[in-house]
Amino acid sequence: MDMRLLGNSGTVVSNFALGTMTFGNEADERTSHRMMEDYLSAGGNFIDTADIYNAGASEEIVGKWLHSNQAARNSMLLATKGRFPTGDGLNDAGNSRRHLRRALEGSLRRLGVEHIDLYQLHSWDPLTPLEESLAFLDDAVSSGLISYYGFSNFTGWQLTKAVWMAKLHNWQPPVTLQPQYNLLEREIESEIIPAALDAGLGLLPWSPLAGGWLTGKYRRESVPAGNTRVGENPTRQFQEWDLRSSNPRTWHILDALAQMASAHGAEPAQIALAWLAGRPGVTSVILGARTPEQLESNLQATGVELSEAETQRLDALSAPVVGNYPYGPDGVNQRARRVS
Predict the structure, then answer these.
(1) Up-side HSE of residue 117: CA atoms within 13 Å toward CB?
(2) How many other CB atoms are found less than 10 A from the CB of residue 139?
(3) E strand residue ranges, 32-92
(4) Angstrom distance (rounded) from CA 206 to CA 17
(5) How do residues 36-91 score in pLDDT, each as one tens digit?
(6) How far is CA 272 from CA 20, 163, 237, in A?
(7) Contact of 88 with 122, CB cutoff 8 Å
(8) CB atoms < 10 A from the CB of 63, how many?
(9) Which member of 79, 99, 196, 226 lies 3.0 to 4.6 Å from 48 by CB, making a disulfide possible if both were Cys?
(10) Residue 302: which pLDDT band, with cuts at 50, 70 and 90?
(11) Closest CA relative to residue 212, chosen from 177, 248, 250, 176
(12) 10 — phi, psi (to 5°)?
């Protein structure tokens, strides 16, 4: 794997991270431990989880593996998140100091560690003053409970506001942003990625295969059924069959991936992952798998090198559809300036 700096920090992580949302549900403890072993053997050093993944089971499984593997405990970097409900109480959710303190304490306990490398706000909280959330994160860094913090699912204005509020108060700055990003979902390139690049934040894309769409297993002529995410729930959030299958752009992208995969002797998923790992600002692509076989296949993307022509073709086919203003040609040209 390539090794890259974690955003604007001095810490080095592998360009593919292991996502653990399947741990404790789609992957049992034994299977999850096998995938962590395989990931470590492949040269990876960055595990991403969250307190809400299967009601904390994901963090517990990661913690048990680390406890039984001292070498991994010393070399692996841990990222987790807090924000979403962990109980039925009114204060069991959000980015308030009260909830984040309890969420962080719970994550440390389940992971069996005294320190977390990257703690992330899982989403924006419209009810909690941003100063309150950032002050808590700064305190958590100062107290040694976390090394760095970042955000997930923030919009461009939310991210920029947080970055400059931290500067204003001389608090520790954020280092990463974790957004949904893949060949089918590129709208973040209009505002969110420019905001992250401007602040020096590293991107940690989730759902890099668009919930299985970019693996090439779906076909125009048949609604999926059975043991796939969309097959089990065709209206699944972010992966809805009717929404994506009705868009010709989806199938143009999938056709191109299949052609490139054949040329490289690879799988479509590996082409999609290689494209994403090469995007500006991407630090580490989060791989989520149900089985060791899926993980092994995805990790082979580290050996795929796309030509400039292939990258340009995928860029063009997957370009997000936007209006003429402010993100279309006239809006972009209006903001452009050249020396000559």
Answers:
(1) 20
(2) 16
(3) 46-48, 77-82
(4) 10
(5) 999 999 999 999 999 999 999 999 999 999 999 988 888 999 999 999 999 999 99
(6) 20, 31, 21
(7) no
(8) 21
(9) 79
(10) very high
(11) 250
(12) -100, 10
Residue listed under structure tokens 């559809």: 321
Catalytically annotated residue among 39, 53, 148, 218:
53
Element (H, E) at 161: helix 156-169
Parallel, antiparallel, or unpaired for β 46-48 and 16-19?
Answer: parallel
Active site residue 53: yes
Task: Find how far residue 264's CA is from the centre of its chain.
Answer: 26
pLDDT of residue 71: 85
- DSSP codes of every residue in 235-294: T-TT--HHHHHT-HHHHHHHHHHHHHHHHHTS-HHHHHHHHHHTSTTB--EEE--SSHHH
SS3 content of the chain, % helix, strand, coil (to 5): 45, 15, 40
CA 49-166-176 angle, to 5 degrees, is 30
Residue 297 to residue 90: CA distance in whole angstroms: 43
Question: Within 13 A of 23's CA, how many CA atoms are on the CB side?
Answer: 31
User: Nearest CA to 194 among 95, 81, 332, 329?
Assistant: 332
Determine the pLDDT at residue 340. 84
Beta-carbon-side half-sphere exposure of residue 184 (alpha carbons within 13 Å): 30
Torsions phi, psi for 79 (to 5 deg): -125, 135
- Element of type H or E holding 148: strand 146-152
What tokens appear for 321 in the block? 């559809």
